[in-house]
Amino acid sequence: MPTSDPHTHVIDYRAAEQLLAARDPRGAVKLLDSVIAAHPENTAARLLRARAFFAAAQLRPAELEFELVLEREPDNAFAHFALARTFERSGRPEQAKRHFRLAAALDPRPEYLQAARFDTDPHPDPGGTPDPGSTED
């Protein structure tokens, strides 16, 4: 079995980042599959692959990867936020809400707070900006 150069995996990871930025998530997943096969403990590669799955609308694989990242890094606010977006896109608002709130509690970025609805009245003014995808009363 041929051994691969460790530098190849770094190059593949960087190329996958570029493919994702260029809106080729499936190409990114293909490159990351080999990186993760060689380094299954690489959380950064798994997080990038989860993002690529999400961008390719492969929601179940994205969910599984984000959950694996969170098993290893439970304080990763971005992973909570991205998992919440995955649940939201899958039509599971209660699970999404939980992870939006965890993301906001870990990192009070405005987009996390807004998604968690910590910074808004539960009954906003009719003239306010609607929150797309909200199913709360």
Describe the structure in brief.
The chain has 137 residues and is mostly helical. It has helices spanning 6-21, 25-38, 43-55, 59-72, 77-89, 93-106, 110-116.
Topology:
Elements: H1 6-21, H2 25-38, H3 43-55, H4 59-72, H5 77-89, H6 93-106, H7 110-116
Helix pairs in contact: 1-2, 1-3, 2-3, 3-4, 4-5, 5-6, 6-7
Which terms summarize this structure?
137 residues; mainly alpha; 66% helix; elongated; disordered C terminus; repeat; Tetratricopeptide repeat protein
Q: What do you see in this structure?
A:
There is one protein chain. The longest helix has 16 residues, at 6-21. This protein has 137 residues and is an all-alpha fold. 66% of the residues lie in helices and 0% in strands. The chain is elongated, with a radius of gyration of 17 Å. It has two domains: 1-58, no CATH class; 74-119, no CATH class. Helix 4 (59-72) packs antiparallel against helix 5 (77-89) and helix 6 packs antiparallel against helix 7.
Would you count the extended β strands for me?
0
The percentage helix is 55-70%
Distance between the termini: 59 Å
Radius of gyration: 17 Å
Q: Poorly predicted ranges (pLDDT <50, ≥5 residues)?
A: 121-137
The topology string of helices and strands comes to HHHHHHH
